[in-house]
Amino acid sequence: MSTEAIVIMVVGVALLLATVLLGRSLLKGRGDSQILAKGVPARAIILSVQDAKTRLNGHPAALVRLDVTPRDGAHFEVMVQTPVTRQNALTLQPGQVVHVRFDPAHRTRTVIVPREG
Hints:
Blueprint lengths: L2 H36 L1 E17 L2 E12 L5 E8 L13 E7 L2 E7 L5
Antiparallel strand pairs: 1-2, 1-4, 2-3, 4-5
């Protein structure tokens, strides 16, 4: 195989990976918007927070483990990835209560409701 063919193949694979990763990021954002608009509201206690070692919408991201209690009282635990912004940095602490919305058919699809301000 020629050097030129190898370079073309490597560039093609890199472009494919970039497209897949960007597509997943865009779809997740769109899914979060749907959950925020139509999801079931609930309160959640933050159990833990750790650095996700990535960025969301230009902000550092955190992995947040939540104990979610819907109005029906059947609580569940879930891990969400959320951006860390100036508005929510102090709220993303273990023991804090946050408002969330979730998809009742897939409770792993839970989103922390952004604070206003």
